[in-house]
């Protein structure tokens, strides 16, 4: 198995059952890391989801300073608003930190579950 195959996102719920899903995607980045790491991680995740037939909803590469990744509280708020606007379409949420992003800003805007 290649490293790409090992890193592929496996979204299967049960063997033999396939349900195409729509996931909210949040990619994290810290400003002192090269933005290329978050860009590459985002591209790989979206490719894996598309290969499976799943859809992803998140910020576009031009909507933040780091290729669609969340670096600041303003980015996190923008992403949260975008995902809330599409909440009825979402089956789940994927948060990926390809270069150890700062999860605190995403947590600040994540809705509380009751």
Structure explained in plain terms:
- It is a single chain.
- The chain has 114 residues and is of the alpha/beta class.
- The chain has one domain.
- The chain is built from 4 helices and 3 strands; from the N terminus they run H-E-H-E-H-E-H.
- Strands 2-1-3 form a 3-stranded parallel beta sheet, with helices on both faces.
- Helix 2 links the parallel strand 1 and strand 2.
- Helix 3 packs across helix 4.
Short structural description:
The protein has 114 residues and is an alpha/beta fold. Helices cover 38% and strands 12% of the residues. The protein is built from four helices and three strands.
Keywords:
single chain; 114 residues; alpha/beta; three-stranded parallel sheet; 4 helices; globular; disordered N terminus
Global mean pLDDT: 77
What fraction, in percent, of the residue positions are helical? 25-40%
Low-confidence parts lasting 5 or more residues at pLDDT below 50?
1-13
Shape designation: globular
**Secondary structural class:** alpha/beta
Order of helices and strands: HEHEHEH
Q: In what order do the strands lie side by side in the largest sheet?
A: 2-1-3
N-to-C span: 42 Å
Largest sheet: 3 strands, parallel
Count up the domains.
Answer: 1
Number of helices: 4
Strands, total number: 3
Give me the Rg, rounded. 14 Å
The percentage of residues in β strands lies in 5-15%
């Amino acid at each position: 198995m290649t490293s790409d195959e090992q890193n592929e996102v496996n979204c299967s719920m049960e063997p033999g059952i396939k349900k195409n899903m729509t996931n909210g995607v949040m990619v994290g980045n810290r400003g002192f890391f090269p933005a290329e790491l978050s860009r590459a991680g985002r591209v790989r995740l979206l490719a894996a989801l598309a290969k499976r037939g799943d859809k992803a909803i998140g910020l576009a590469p031009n909507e933040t300073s780091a290729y669609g990744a969340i670096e600041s509280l303003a980015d996190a708020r923008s992403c949260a608003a975008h995902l809330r606007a599409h909440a009825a379409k979402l089956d789940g949420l994927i948060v990926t930190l390809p270069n150890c992003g700062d999860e605190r800003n995403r947590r600040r805007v994540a809705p509380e579950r009751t």
